[in-house]
Amino acid sequence: LNNIRSLVIEDSERARDSITHLSDLLRFSIQFDQFEKVSLDKEVAVVKDYLNLEAIQLEERLQYEFRMDQTAKEIQVPPMIIQTLVENAIKHSINELPNGGQIIVESKLDHEYLNLFVMNTGQLKTRSNSSNRRGIGINNSKERLRLLYGHKASLHVENMNEQMVCATIKIPLDKI
Predict the structure, then answer these.
(1) Single pTM value for the model
(2) 63-74, pLDDT tens digit by residue?
(3) Which alpha helices (H) appear in the chain, and where do they start and end?
(4) Which residues pair with 159 in a beta bridge?
(5) Beta bridge partners of 67
């Protein structure tokens, strides 16, 4: 809200757009408990709202891209599953990098699974005793996947290379 507040004077049109993004994000987050699953298209729309809001503060330090398989847009996914991963990428990586970084959200459909990828600039850090709250969002997402799809679904986070981290979600199509 403070970021939007500062935009009101600087760029009133962008401030209005940001209020709309915030409104959509809040509406979805309030209602998401009512839904076991939402369309991938709706989930991506919420992620875009969230990234637009984060871009107010991070400005040019945040680049993002979506590579979505259009044939998968109506497939049902747990609400806020991608948004949680994007939020983690910003909180634990992009925010800490002096030059910021990039987030890529991608979906690929194969015969058995919907594969979702959230890639971001940065590296996984080993946990210290002082960061025992870290991983709660990931663990909650894993548990939601398990409850909805059993052991056929998965969520893994790993370093892709020296510059990028990738979170991969696999959702079985036979359980959708």
Answers:
(1) 0.81
(2) 999 999 999 999
(3) 2-10, 12-31, 40-58, 81-92, 136-149
(4) 165
(5) 106
